[in-house]
Specification:
2 domains; about 35% helix; Rossmann fold; alpha/beta
Length: about 270
């Protein structure tokens, strides 16, 4: 289990941190903690600000212009806290990166890394589970088709909600996982197109062929970040627009990450 130091007092605004490089991670909920955990394993020296937006409408349910505007507001908040490099650790949000304003910082989503990783496996039969917006957008199907890879997709919306609540093993979760995976259970590989899903990879394994391998894009994203010029500028900080205590509990249950303090904000 990973533990981190308590948070320091509020930091100065980014104009006072021009000499430093700080990583920000945005997700609607705790899914991006899977990326955060891997980043800290590779770069324990890097300072990170994590932002969970559970106080807002779920990103997958927002209209595209509304979601882009929301992300622009969150990004400006993070820049004010010193963020210079950003990962959008949500597949639904990553579909709108092209619509974002120019914030003058490096922004990486999860989709490009996921497509690149999936294509490199040369899958005999590739399946995908993800949120409704991610699947319906067709972004994975188009991107993988360009690389000569066919794709069978399944909407797995209930799973992320259950994991967000801290549920990683209930009968309801298992029932949903079995239903969702059944049509693609014989895939050679299944792409986890939501950063929540690695928390239940052990459960998912029970409902697919023994030869099926899961592809976790969070690992590829963390590998990309490991090459970024990031510095230590103090302890990591966690913000949410939702329930701070629920975030702490769910991060521990789902990913084994103990967050000592979450600051609730309104944006």
């Amino acid at each position: 289990m990973i533990r981190f130091h308590p948070l320091d007092p509020p930091y100065p605004r980014s104009k006072d941190l021009d000499h430093e490089s700080m990583l920000g991670i945005i997700d609607w909920g705790i899914g991006g903690v899977s990326i955060y955990k891997l980043v800290k394993e590779r770069r324990p020296d890097a300072s990170v600000i994590y932002f969970s937006d559970t106080g807002a409408t779920p990103y997958g349910k927002m209209a595209r212009p509304e979601l882009a505007a929301r992300l622009d507001a969150v990004i400006e908040f993070l820049i004010s806290k010193g963020v210079t490099h950003l990962v959008i650790g949500c597949n639904a949000a990553s579909t709108t990166i092209a619509d974002l304003a120019d914030h003058g910082i490096k922004i990486e989503g999860v989709i490009d890394a996921a497509v690149e990783t999936a294509a490199k496996t040369r899958p005999e039969r590739l399946g995908l589970i993800g949120g409704r917006r991610t699947v319906v957008s067709g972004i994975y199907r188009r991107s993988l088709a360009e690389k000569g890879v066919n794709l069978d997709q399944r909407v797995a919306q209930p799973l992320s909600g259950l994991i967000e609540s801290g549920d990683v093993s209930s009968e309801k979760l298992r029932s949903e996982a079995k239903r969702i995976l059944y049509p693609i259970r014989n895939s050679s590989h299944i792409l986890l197109a939501c950063t929540h899903y690695p928390a239940i990879e052990g459960v998912l394994t029970e409902y697919v062929s023994p030869r099926t391998r899961f592809i976790d894009p969070a690992k590829a994203v963390a590998a990309r970040i490991s090459n970024w010029k990031l510095e230590s500028s103090g302890p990591d900080r966690f913000y949410t627009t939702g329930d701070a205590e629920q975030m702490r509990k769910s991060a521990k249950l789902a990913f084994g990450v103990r967050i000592p303090k979450v600051i609730r904000v309104t944006i």
